[in-house]
Specification:
Blueprint (H helix, E strand, L loop, with lengths): L2 E5 L3 H7 L6 E5 L2 E8 L2 E6 L13 E2 L4 E3 L6 E3 L5 E3 L7 E2 L1 E4 L2 E6 L3
Antiparallel strand pairs: 1-11, 2-3, 3-4, 4-9, 5-6, 6-7, 7-8, 10-11
The protein binds FE2/S2 (inorganic) cluster.
Keywords: 2Fe-2S, Iron, Iron-sulfur, Metal-binding
Cofactor: [2Fe-2S] cluster
InterPro entries: Rieske_2Fe-2S, Rieske_2Fe-2S_sf
């Protein structure tokens, strides 16, 4: 079952709270996910690399919204989660929506 969370209380607050070009750590119940802002779009994704589980909080963001894992430099598209360089499964991503009442993030609890 999908679980939806709302961060912040307004669009303005979310934009002030979450800077661009950073990988934010977000706690949603028991789960910790990563969140990146690109203008007014938010990209939410699993924080462990699907290859060997390295922390993607230490990863590097590219201009084209990809993340490069710090361990073996595999690369993932943050919009789709698709693996771009390397050989492992895709990154899990979570739908987000910026609304007047905050940022909605939907996850599938494991
Ligand atoms: S653990 Fe991320 S590329 Fe190997």
């Amino acid at each position: 079952m999908v679980k939806t969370f709302i961060l912040g209380e307004s669009k303005q607050q979310v934009l002030e709270m979450l800077s661009e070009k950073s990988i934010h750590k977000i706690h949603l119940d028991q789960k910790v996910i990563a969140l990146v802002r690109s203008n007014e779009t938010f990209l939410a994704f699993q924080s462990e690399c699907p290859h060997r589980g390295a922390s993607l909080f230490q990863g590097r963001l590219t201009e084209t919204n990809e993340i490069v894992c710090p361990m073996h430099e595999y690369r993932f598209d943050l919009k789709t989660g698709k693996l771009k360089v390397g050989s492992c499964g895709d990154l899990e991503t979570y739908p987000t929506e910026l609304t007047e009442n905050g940022l909605k993030i939907s996850i599938f609890p494991t």
